[in-house]
Amino acid sequence: MSAHEITLIPGDGIGPEVTGAASEVLAAAGVDIRWRVAEAGAEVVSKYGSALPDQVLDSIKATRVALKGPLTTPVGRGFASPNVALRKALDLFASVRPVKTLPGVPVPFRDVDLVIIRENTEGEYSGIEHLVVPGVVESLKIITEKASTRISEFAFAHAVATGRTKVTAVHKANIMKMSDGLFLECARKVARGYPDIEYEELIVDATAMHLVARPQRFQLLLMENLYGDILSDLCAGLVGGLGVVPGANLGTDYAVFEAVHGSAPDIAGKGLANPAAVILSAAMMLRHLGEEEAGARIESAVAQVLADPAHHPRDLGGPATTQQVTDAVIAALDQ
Ligand code: ATP
After folding, report:
1. What is the CATH topology of the domain spanning 108-238?
2. Residue to substitute in 71, 229, 274, 315 for testing ligand 1 pocket (most ligand atoms within 8 angstroms of CB)
3. Distance CA 112, CA 101 (A)
4. Averaged over 210-225, what is the pLDDT?
5. What is the pairing mode between strands 113-119 and 220-223?
6. Ligand 1, atom 15: nearest CA belongs to which residue?
7. What CA–CA distance (Å, rounded) separates 223 from 211?
8. Which ligand 1 atom sits closest to the C-alpha of 71?
């Protein structure tokens, strides 16, 4: 089989360390990948005049698949989020975040196994904000029938493909009657085409409460952009934190795989980052590429390594460095 050509965006902060770890694991798993490295993020703004230079998009358009490290988004003023810009430019409308308990990782719950399907292109992330008069700012939340139907169709198809039997649509339609109301209308319409999948609707605040009380009741959470952003981090906390949760941003033509976590500037360059989230994102990427067996091998190697507290990195309360975790995953590949 010929090599897979993949765009690799090392990104900011801990990005180069954790994506480097993932590429080492993929090589050790024997997957033939030719990486095209593309620089993006806060650290390249002075070099290219943009956090998302054109050549990054050109590279992904050529390879169609990318493994991406985190890109820092300045809070308040400064350049717009390159993460959001990338999703919009490539129409990566679906964010997929599997949240699964790993044996050995100290967490309050066992048997969490859910996936968050988040609409990635609109909602409060439309970026349409303006000053009405000094002291008053207006920010628009955009919900369209087209995007809501598309993400609902994606979610139900994903449920079927992954053997899940229940979809929960998360909303705040009691307050945002028109916008979240439209989102629900679209989800309901799609649900009618899947009589074998149980469909329920739950208000976002109630969802947060249920998630921290009995997360096992959920299989697939379908939601718009901002709720998905917030609940993804909450769900990461249920299974060990940001260091262990992978993710994918998928569109019709392109796929970008990345961890839920950000650039973690507080630990960048210290060799302390947990590489598991990006390694698991790379495993998702392999499954997407049809390399199911290698993806499964990497997932079970990560689970095996994290089952031993001696291999836990600092975010899980252990002593292991990024490189030690990576080496242990590579050693576990052949067991
Ligand atoms: P950004 O602005 O890029 O989102 P941030 O610091 O606001 O960065 P995160 O990067 O997600 O947000 O980090 C939140 C916290 O979680 C930080 O304390 C960070 O050190 C920790 N963290 C995130 N990812 C990891 C990881 N892979 N390994 C260890 N700790 C992590």
Report:
1. Isopropylmalate Dehydrogenase (3.40.718)
2. 315
3. 5
4. 97
5. parallel
6. 264
7. 14
8. 3
Is there an atom of ligand 1 within 6 Å of 17 CB?
no
What's the pLDDT at 2?
77
- From residue 118, alpha-carbon distances to 51, 123, 209 in Å are 24, 11, 19
CB of 274 closer than 6 angstroms to any ligand 1 atom = yes
Catalytic residue among 12, 68, 100, 172: 172
Domain boundaries for CATH 3.40.718.10 within the chain: 1-97+240-335, 108-238
CATH 3.40.718.10 fits 1-97+240-335, yes or no: yes
Position 132, amino acid: V
146 catalytic? Reply is no
The catalytic position among 229, 254, 315, 327 is 229
SS3 237: helix
CA 263 to centroid of ligand 1, rounded, Å: 6
Mean pLDDT of 256-274: 96
Q: What's the pLDDT score for residue 299? A: 97
Strand partners, 34: 5
189 is catalytic: no
Span 63-68, average pLDDT: 98
- CA–centroid distance, 166 to ligand 1, in Å, is 31
Distance 237 CA to ligand 1 centre (A): 12
* Triad 71, 76, 80: Cα angle to 5°: 45
CB 276 within 8 A of CB 244: yes
Q: Which of 264, 232, 283, 320 is nearest to 16 (CA)?
A: 264
What is the distance between the alpha carbons of residues 80 and 129, in angstroms, rounded to a whole number?
12
For position 73, what pLDDT does the model report? 80
